[in-house]
Amino acid sequence: MMMAKKWVKFLRDFENFKAACVPWENKIKAIESQFGSSVASYFLFLRWMYGVNMVLFILTFSLVMLPEYLWGLPYGTIPRKTVPRAEEDSAANFGVLYDFNGLAQYSVLFYGYYNNQRTIGVLNFRLPLSYFLVGLACIGYSFLVVLKAMTQNIGDDGGDDNTFNFSWKVFTSWDFLIGNPETADNKFNSITMNFKEAILEERAGEIEENVHLIRFLRFLANFFVFLTLAASGYLIFWAVKRSQEFAQQDPDTLGWWEKNEMNMVMSLLGMFCPTLFDLFAELEDYHPLIALKWLLGRIFALLLGNLYVFILALMDEIYNKIEEEKLVKANITLWEANMIKAYNSSVTGNGTAAPFFVHPADVPRGPCWETMVGQEFVRLTVSDVLTTYVTILVGDFLRACFVRFCNYCWCWDLEYGYPSYTEFDISGNVLALIFNQGMIWMGSFFAPSLPGINILRLYVSMYFQGWAVMCCNVPEARVFKSSKGNTFYLGMLLLILFLSTMPVLYMIVCLPPSFDCGPFSGKNRMFEVIGETLEHDFPSWMAMVLRQLSNPALMLAVALVMVLTIYYLNATAKGQKAANLDLKKKMKQLQLLVASNFHGCAGASEVLLALLFKNNDLCEGPENKHFAIPLSP
Fold this sequence. Notes:
Its main location: membrane. This protein is mostly helical and 633 residues long.
């Protein structure tokens, strides 16, 4: 008896230890017990994204930022690592640093600070090669981890057997290892919420609908959604044109709004348009899970359109910078010729000259479009985070305070009437997380600090949004059970990953790097660092083999084989799924046949024994004495 108690105590302590090792596990369970699995799935998704970004940050910090900081040339030694003389007075001001200019721009946070030395430090660390390979490794790892997560969760979405659903919930939901009263209350609330989800799912399939009215309302809702998307696209286009006009003006004459108008317009559209889409979804009367997927798809289209308009604006600015580089390069060549001429004129008759030194801050330099791209994505990320937090404070916290303290002296019930407490916006929060991650993937090649900024944002969001949802929000009126695998979220994340990496790969392959900033300066294309490494660091025979392996014809053949393999595996999976569904149907038919003839059996085990041993006497009841099920030999 004592051994059994010790064993139970050991199991309880071990479960508590495992829960303590998983980040934010208790917080997420508390949220799930109050708001259901749909809200908890967002925080599980956020925690998973935190782990992905942690790996990206470790790669960029350990293989790019830290080597440059330890072994690279220090600040002030060369022009690309020095603030220009005209900007020195304001380089450390808060407003300049908040805009990621000044000292922040000329640091390891951005692409332009890194030198193009082939090797640095006593270890001869190849920084340009490492920078290029880490950028590709981050993209490859992201694809791998998203596809792996989707593969693991395929079986969680369509393979659930809902037979005796409520019976299983009644008899198997309680955890008998719980010894904490607060944990027991949370578990009780969680079981209650699961029953609400299951009951609403059952009722949703029994409602009779007016087909023609539903079709008309859904057409009307989609028409309103199309008008909203068109208006949003026009507003983004208008903001881009204005930002290009502001870029040609003196920055000192512009106010805060003019400098941040593009970022603020995108953030405000991402904040208010999901609310409109949610109102339009009320007309469609879909099942809550289907309505959420439609809402996510519409918000995804909105954010993706905004992002690509933003990218097109950046591409126009990049082309302008590349054209400007040609003029600046000619001016720098003329300046160098004048410096040489002045130096030669200072040579005395005996061949000696006065000391001649030009400070790096005084050397003219060309535009660095890579740093400009990184700055834009960092600014957009920071402004979006601030907008989200201010929205939570104003729209959730202050609204909840008003409802809570003014309800006693108001004309109507504020808690159950207008304005009431806010519901947790699952669709808006999930899409904001996916959209922000797409910006991280797109901008991290030009701003290695972006994964670290995103880790800080996700860490703060877990606590801040967890506090907000527990203190300021109420459970949704439309409760449903969300899939544990979140395959739908992962599918959208995979799509945004693909669409985010395409512009980056285009910039790497097709655009020439800036001539006086970044680790690839002096090359025609960034990927030439691979050929340089093959030429200097590998034997000639190995370099020839690697070049043959990178032949476009061979790569095309490999891609074709991969596509055919994926098609074969997909077809095999569909066949196995169809076979499983057919087997389930046959088992249910057999179950009904057994239930209609073995009325005297007390349980499924006795029916199974009767079938195996072909002995109907195992079951009680005279109706079973003369019945036999033919079994295969």
